[in-house]
User: Which sequence fits this backbone?
């Protein structure tokens, strides 16, 4: 077995590698992940998370995929943990004027934690998912997330909060492939999910209307006024959960030329700026974490401030402040900032404020 599948020296004999619990969603990525591991000689058990009623269909699709792949499947009831650690914080963050990323919070607190717990119950040492990322052993017994072969599908940003307890037993077979290759494998296997579209929306808000989702839960966000680029009061807005830093469209404000959301103020006002000026010199972070649990040292890094944004050069002061080498576009409070060196994730934190 190549250490590409499982890094490090813990995976040197077949007896240590014969069982793996794979997170299955019913989509093409997790299905091919199962196939690859079976081809490698593993005895694979699938596990699907039932997070909420919005995931009923995903559970049924996972059952079909497991049947097609001829593996046993367990259903993990994750509703309580998902509500507490993902859905409610997501709503609270939007209502406070932030732009949260629920996947970043779900991975360490729900998805991988419950997958590992179920593996322990079943006597299975190793876990795997269909993420496009790698796990790299950077020192004996110390593991980190690393970028995959596919730059276009890179999901390392979403996984930065995983700790050694998970990384030491985790496998990402798809880290060595492009998405086109994964679909070709699925077609060759005759899997019904081979050409299924990629899921882009928030999984528990399938229609994408998160503001209605939050409102329907009986919650309200801060209200206030639009403040124009020149300081003028432009009237009331619809509530801060409807806006995010850098937003240009959907403001409902006619100023004669394009404007953008420059800041969501503590009092609920939304400060606007002229389009083209939405670049910031730095940001502050909170809840900073690293894979090894040690403080992130001061120094120069590459940092991603959105999952699909290219990394930008920066300096971290070792405490909370990040200064960009060149101004970066709209580091939105509530999103994550993830630090990289040599294509390896060193750590990250939640953006607190943006520095002009």
Assistant:
């Amino acid at each position: 077995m190549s250490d590409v599948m499982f890094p490090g020296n813990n995976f040197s004999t077949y007896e240590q590698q014969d069982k793996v619990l794979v997170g299955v969603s019913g989509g093409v990525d997790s299905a091919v992940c199962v196939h690859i591991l079976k081809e490698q000689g593993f005895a694979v058990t699938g596990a699907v998370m039932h997070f909420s009623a919005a995931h009923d269909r995903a559970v049924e699709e996972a059952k079909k995929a497991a049947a097609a792949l001829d593996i046993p499947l367990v259903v993990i009831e994750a509703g309580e943990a998902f509500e507490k650690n993902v859905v409610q914080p997501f709503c609270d963050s939007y209502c406070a004027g932030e732009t949260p990323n629920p996947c970043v919070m779900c991975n360490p607190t729900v998805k991988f934690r419950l997958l590992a717990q179920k593996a322990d119950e079943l006597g299975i040492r190793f876990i795997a998912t269909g993420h496009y990322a790698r796990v790299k052993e950077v020192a004996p017994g110390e593991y980190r997330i690393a970028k995959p072969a596919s730059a276009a599908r890179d999901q390392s940003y979403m996984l930065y909060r995983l700790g050694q307890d998970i990384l030491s037993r985790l496998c990402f077979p798809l880290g060595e492939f492009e998405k086109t290759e994964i679909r070709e494998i699925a077609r060759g296997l005759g899997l019904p999910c081979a050409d299924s579209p990629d899921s882009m929306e928030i999984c528990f808000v399938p229609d994408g209307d998160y503001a209605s989702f939050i409102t329907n839960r009986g919650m309200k966000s801060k209200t206030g006024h639009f403040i124009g680029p020149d300081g003028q009061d432009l009237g009331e807005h619809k509530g801060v959960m409807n806006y995010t830093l850098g937003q240009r469209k959907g403001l409902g404000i006619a100023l004669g030329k394009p404007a953008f959301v420059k800041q969501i103020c503590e009092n609920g006002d939304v400060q606007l700026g002229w389009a083209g000026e939405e670049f910031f010199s730095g940001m502050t972070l909170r809840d900073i974490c690293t894979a090894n649990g040690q403080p992130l040292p001061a120094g120069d890094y590459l940092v991603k401030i959105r999952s699909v944004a290219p990394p930008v050069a920066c300096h971290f002061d070792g405490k909370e402040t990040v200064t960009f080498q060149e101004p970066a576009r709209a580091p939105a409070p509530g999103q994550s900032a993830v630090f990289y060196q040599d294509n390896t994730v060193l750590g990250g934190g939640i953006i607190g404020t943006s520095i002009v």
The chain is about 25% helix and 30% strand. The chain has a mean pLDDT of 93.
